[in-house]
Design brief:
552 residues; alpha/beta; Diaminopimelate Epimerase, Chain A, domain 1; 5-stranded parallel β-sheet; 3 domains; OB fold (Dihydrolipoamide Acetyltransferase, E2P); 19 helices
């Protein structure tokens, strides 16, 4: 067993070079396929947006609203995907001369999706057209109410289509509609919004300036980085350093984005997105949307960027505190097959993050709840071997409301049902996992030879960027790596710095948060290591570095 107690799974055990194995794993053995993957034609690579079912009808309705001076409401979501998608839609409609306003639900006060109170507001304001972004597909009831009030609702969404379909919507733009022949099914909400912008703008070059915004939602929502998503992210990362949106420019500066190097999905996922998400998690999502649609108001943009930076720092503090408390509580009954913890102090905006961290660490499903007067709000996360939404469906009679996916879900539950729910979920999970191997898995691209750890391999890996779900940065296994030197680094000696002697070649390795294994590394001078190859630069000098993921 590895030091991280993970089971290693090698994806390609065939003979041949490391490059051949990587290409085979991605279905890129054909030179033409590889060429299109590495250097895609952006304009030709995107599918015609009018291949979407309902696109003609939607475009005609929006253009009629613009020409008639109707007030159009863009209704988004409070996460990065919903906010960046709403920004795309607002900027597109403004560019076309539309009279556009926007609304975003508050996570705590309104919950996810269309809230009925906004429909009442729209009726009083004589609004006749609402365009949703990243939500709406599960709001059949609210959309029917809107129709009764004379409001047309155009739904643009990418979430799972429920049995209760919003038939009263004016039209639904969704890549997975049953009557849908659109070639790419995995767009994020921001991606669907971008396709609508493409249809509305046609040959107007303004549409390409929206790709940096589309890339934010695509990366943050963890959709596969292939097909059109790859085009969106690849081009978006190129545009971000010279973005025309003042707020986004300042936010990147505060996030410490280094424009001297090519940006990657880590830049979005760990520097930009958390700051945008912080607004919707613990405060108002309007701060983030107003920042993204700010093109020229420099003072306001800088103020909004600082607001998001401060909210993100607050979110980090809240998360650290809740994570420690939840984990300590769980350790008192660590033999339970599912983690279920609740507290009044844990903010609903961070409980999903806590659930995700604990689920990953302990390789079991986790449900974290914030407690209110007579009910609780929950976020649930689970490993791939357990379907959390299926488990909630099985106990839906105890829940007030629930929804989500196989590995991530949320629900509300009354206090009077909580103890029964906990008991039944523990029993249900124990039965489901009885004959299941719950050991965490670590997928490894292939084994690599010492002589293949070179600059040619690194340059080849770079050509496959951007990385993400569906195109992970390659992880390699090297057996019998000789440890020449091992020491801890960092303010608290949290990290492990290693030097390996690979057939006479000195290669540095860094293992973040592996400081506790310093004695292990010094004792066992030959290690099997799982790592990613990186280019490290220090004081203008470049060197090959191995970022360790695990070892034994």
């Amino acid at each position: 067993m590895s030091v991280r107690e993970k089971k290693w799974k090698i994806l390609n055990k065939a003979t041949g070079s490391v490059v051949d194995k990587i290409l085979e794993n991605r279905g890129l053995a054909n030179p033409d396929d590889l060429a299109r993957f590495v250097k895609p034609d952006f304009k030709k690579g995107f599918y015609d947006p009018f291949l979407f079912a309902g696109m003609d009808k939607i475009v005609n309705r929006i253009k009629t609203a613009i020409s008639g001076g109707e007030r159009i409401i863009v209704y988004g979501d409070y996460d990065v995907d919903g906010i960046s998608g709403a920004a795309i839609m607002v900027l597109t409609l403004e560019h076309l001369g539309g009279k556009v306003s926007y609304r975003l639900p508050h996570r705590l006060n309104d919950g996810y999706g269309i809230n009925e109170k906004y429909i009442d507001e729209f009726e009083k304001a004589d609004v006749k057209l609402v365009v949703t972004v990243d939500c709406g597909i599960s709001n059949a009831k609210e959309i029917s109410i809107a129709k009764q009030k004379g409001i047309d609702v155009i739904v643009t969404d990418h979430h799972k289509i429920p049995e209760n379909y919003p038939d009263d919507a004016y039209e639904v733009l969704h890549p997975m509609r049953k009557d849908q022949n659109y070639p790419f099914k995995n767009l994020a909400g921001a991606g669907v919004a971008f396709k609508l912008s493409q249809a509305l703008l046609g040959d107007d070059p303004f549409v390409w300036s929206l790709l940096d915004l589309a890339s934010l939602g695509t990366v943050a929502d963890c959709v596969p980085i292939n097909g059109e998503n790859r085009l969106i992210v690849k081009k978006g990362l190129e545009i971000l350093p010279r973005t025309k949106w003042e707020g986004l420019k300042f936010l990147q500066e505060l996030a410490g984005v280094n424009f001297d190097k090519p940006l990657n999905t880590h830049t979005i996922g760990f520097q930009i997105a958390p700051r945008i998400n912080a607004a919707g998690r613990i405060d108002s999502p309007y701060y983030a949307l107003q920042l993204l649609i700010n093109g020229k108001q420099t003072d306001k943009a800088r103020k909004l960027a600082n607001q998001l930076e401060n909210l993100n720092k607050k979110r980090q503090t809240m998360l650290r505190s809740a994570l420690v408390e939840a984990e300590n509580s769980f350790l008192q009954h660590i033999n339970n097959p599912i983690i279920i913890e609740y507290n009044q102090k844990w903010h609903v905006g961070i409980i999903g993050l806590v659930a995700g961290r604990l689920s990953e660490k302990y390789s079991r499903p986790a449900i974290i709840l914030q407690e209110f007067d007579d009910y609780l709000v929950a976020s649930a996360r689970s490993p791939e071997f357990f379907n959390i939404i299926e488990a909630l469906t099985e106990h839906s009679d105890l829940l007030d409301h629930y929804g989500g996916h196989a590995q991530a879900a949320g629900f509300n539950i009354s206090k009077e049902n909580l103890s029964k729910f906990i008991k039944e979920m523990n029993s249900y999970t124990e039965k489901k996992l009885k004959n299941c191997d719950v050991t965490p898995k670590l997928s490894i691209e292939c084994e690599i030879k010492p002589q293949e750890i070179n600059w040619d391999t690194i340059e080849f890996i770079k050509s496959l960027e951007p990385f993400g779900i569906g195109n992970d940065r390659p992880k390699f296994l090297l057996r019998g790596a000789e440890v020449e030197n091992a020491r801890t680094v960092g303010k608290s000696d949290d990290h492990l710095s290693l030097t390996f002697d690979l057939n006479g070649q000195q290669i540095k390795g860094i293992a973040f948060n592996f400081g506790e294994f310093i004695d292990y590394a010094r004792k066992h001078r030959n290690l099997n290591i799982v790592f990613q190859l990186e280019e490290n630069e220090w004081k203008g000098r470049k060197s090959i570095q191995m970022k360790l993921i695990d070892f034994e």
